[in-house]
Structures are given as structure tokens and as C-alpha cells.
Design a protein that fits this description.
The structure holds two protein chains of two kinds.
Chain A lengths: L3 E4 L2 E4 L5 E7 L6 E7 L6 E7 L5 E2 L8 E7 L2 E6 L8 E9 L5 E4 L3 E5 L1
Parallel strand pairs in A: 2-11
Antiparallel strand pairs in A: 1-3, 3-8, 4-5, 4-9, 5-6, 7-8, 9-10, 9-11
Chain B lengths: L2 E3 L3 E5 L4 E8 L6 E6 L6 E6 L3 E5 L2 E6 L4 E6 L8 E8 L8 E3 L3 E6 L1
Parallel strand pairs in B: 2-11
Antiparallel strand pairs in B: 1-3, 3-8, 4-5, 4-9, 6-7, 7-8, 9-10, 9-11
The chains are: A mainly beta, B mainly beta.
């Protein structure tokens, strides 16, 4: 199957700072990528849909000015958590759709963000 | 909108068979997925159903009934490593870019 990578896998930052998470599709082109957030013992909640070359579409309740998404190429999307707070601590997972493979959605390994 | 329901927790014995149910309500439907997720890791794909019936893949099988809005994941010959969360996800064709929408997941514990 296709491979999606995320970097970093873990990050600890201080409250008020910004953190950038990268999501890459390694062996396919992804016009659409999705960003999910998962709190402990809860399911994946969709945050936003990232489309190459256009603005991201955010789910209700997700602040677009706080969670900046950039999808500059067909293989890279970035999520920047700005002015991070402890309540932003979570597991962030990106997913990319391979249009050549029945639209299968492949997941990255996730990024564990801890804000102190 | 979408509504996806599955049991929160299940326990089963090593070597046994377990069935995890999922019911869904969506405005459109373009496929149901099952994923396995171990704690602290990303979900891994298990199965995909878009037509009614049973899809078998080794020890895992998945069933879909579109008219009933119902699916189940069947795990046979359970192994300790099968202890994980199992996520039911639906692709709602009417949701623009059609991301997968996930249920809350079923935490399966396999005991000796």
C-alpha cells in the first residue's frame, strides 16, 4: 500500500509557541489530505480537509487562525498549531487519498503533541 | 450529518471468534471501512465494503447491509496481538471532499 509519513513523531513545546507538523505522501500524489485529532481513548475527529493549491476546509468548531494548513504541493501538507496551549495536547494524524487506488485513504503514523 | 455507533468495549478469549457491530446513518454512502488502531499508533486499514455482503481476508471478515445501515467485523482465531481499538468509518459521498468519518471505536481486549 501507499506510504504517508509525518514529522515529527513527537514534540513537546511551551505554551504560547507554534509547532509545525509535516505530512508527506511518499509514493503517490495526493490532491486531498485530511487532518485528524485524537484525544486519549477517543476516536479520530476530522479537523480539516486540505486541497493542493487552495484553502483548507475546516470542520465546525476548528479555528482556522489557530490551526494553519498549507498544501503547497501534491505530496506535502503542513499543519501549524499557533500559540499552543495545554488543551491542544493531542495526537494529530494526517491522511492522504490516493486517487489512483479507489480513493483509498492512507494514514500517517501520527504526531504526539504535548504543550507544557 | 453522520452518526456512527459501535460498542465501546468488548472482551474475548484467545482462539475464539468475536463480532464487532457498527450501525451508521449518513445522508449519502460511498463505502464503509474498518481500521485497527493500537494505542499511540495510527489506524491501519483492515477492510472496505461498498456493496452488500461479506468480504473475507484471512482471519478478518467484514459484512455490509446498506439497507439496514449495518456492518460487522468478524475476527477469527483471536490472538493476543488483536487487542486494539477497531474503528468503523464511513465515506459520506455528499460531504464535498468525502473524508472518512469515524465512529468512536471499539476497544477489544483478548484474554488468555
Amino acid at each position: 500500500g501507499a506510504v504517508v509519513s509525518q514529522h515529527p513523531s513527537r514534540v513537546i513545546c511551551k505554551s504560547g509557541t507554534s509547532v509545525k507538523i509535516e505530512c508527506r505522501s511518499l509514493d503517490f500524489q495526493a490532491t486531498t489530505m485530511f487532518w485528524y485529532r485524537q484525544f486519549p481513548k477517543q476516536s479520530l475527529m476530522l479537523m480539516a480537509t486540505s486541497n493542493e493549491g487552495s484553502k483548507a476546509t475546516y470542520e465546525q468548531g476548528v479555528e482556522k487562525d489557530k490551526f494553519l494548513i498549507n498544501h503547497a504541493s501534491l505530496t506535502l501538507s503542513t499543519l501549524t498549531v499557533t500559540s499552543a496551549h495545554p488543551e491542544d495536547s493531542s495526537f494529530y494524524i494526517c491522511s492522504a487519498r490516493d486517487q489512483q487506488d479507489k480513493g483509498e485513504q492512507y494514514f500517517g503514523p501520527g504526531t504526539r503533541l504535548t504543550v507544557t | 450529518g453522520q452518526n456512527i455507533d459501535q460498542p465501546t468495549e468488548m472482551t474475548a478469549t484467545e482462539g475464539a471468534i468475536v463480532q464487532i457491530n457498527c450501525t451508521y446513518q449518513t445522508s449519502g454512502f460511498n463505502g464503509l471501512f474498518w481500521y485497527q488502531q493500537h494505542a499511540g499508533e495510527a489506524p491501519t486499514f483492515l477492510s472496505y465494503n461498498v456493496l452488500d455482503g461479506l468480504e473475507e481476508k484471512g482471519r478478518f471478515s467484514s459484512f455490509l447491509s446498506r439497507s439496514k445501515g449495518y456492518s460487522y467485523l468478524l475476527l477469527k482465531e483471536l490472538q493476543m496481538k488483536d487487542s486494539a481499538s477497531y474503528l468503523c468509518a464511513v465515506r459520506d459521498w455528499n460531504s464535498g471532499n468525502t473524508p472518512l468519518v469515524f465512529g468512536k471505536g471499539t476497544r477489544l481486549s483478548v484474554i488468555a
